[in-house]
């Protein structure tokens, strides 16, 4: 089976490598040929356009930054739709708008092909290790046919429902993450400003009823050590995801009061010039408002707490 892959950035390169490890032959394309160097060294074939990728493959995957990029690659000049075969399937692994993926699916249906939204969750480390959730919406038969290919990239490839369902699941997931980080920043700065040493506070609350569900452990990687560069996931991308979630809320008539506040928080962080910093960097704004010094706890001490307390 020839597998097409377009977009070999932080996420795409890891997923493409796992496809190759599983024995799939890849045809690849990216705006920069250099981005595809690892895949090419491992035997992938280069194509000069998305159209050329589609013309050679039974299934095509895209991993791209934003909805306009997906539209350009899918239906723009020399796009996937111009070369896709009858009965072939196009899975978009990006986080996209629900209305956008449904419109793309209709366009591909008219060409006798399938378009499925299949956003992923797990970050670059998950893309590299294969510990990746893939939320899929679209034609069930197409999902079943290409499930083995999806399984080569992620250990949790799930069919959610009709086209758009995968995107809805991803927006719910990422909006939850953003809201939780904002809430954690607020309560932790409360405790710190009230006089408790940050590491001791964190070690204590992670053993309470909520803490034992590991809600506070998400503070260990970025917030406590104050490490926001280089990013695991860029702020501009999470801002895009939360914006898509609040937009969906307006479309379906669901109040999103907390999510809209968090979107504003991230917008302020973008205005500070933090677009390429880690997606959790907006938590620094709460530290500033609380009047506490930015945290810089030794990661070794954080690790010691985890090893001691489980």
What layout of secondary structure does this protein have?
Blueprint: E1 2-6, H1 10-21, E2 25-29, H2 37-41, E3 45-46, H3 50-56, E4 59-62, H4 67-75, H5 80-83, E5 89-92, H6 98-109, E6 114-117, E7 120-121, H7 123-129, E8 133-137, H8 140-153, E9 156-161, H9 165-193, H10 198-205, H11 235-252, H12 257-271, H13 283-290, H14 299-309
Parallel strand pairs: 1-2, 1-4, 2-3, 4-5, 5-6, 8-9
Antiparallel strand pairs: 7-8
Structure in a nutshell:
It is built from 14 helices and nine strands.
Known CATH architecture of the largest domain: 3-Layer(aba) Sandwich
How is the biggest beta sheet arranged?
6 strands, parallel
Oligomer: single chain
Derived from helix and strand composition plus strand pairing, the structural class reads alpha/beta
Low-confidence stretches: none
The total tally of domains equals: 2
* Helix-strand pattern: EHEHEHEHHEHEEHEHEHHHHHH
CATH topology-level name of the largest domain: Rossmann fold
Shape descriptor reads: elongated
Intertermini distance: 45 Å
In round numbers, the mean pLDDT is 97
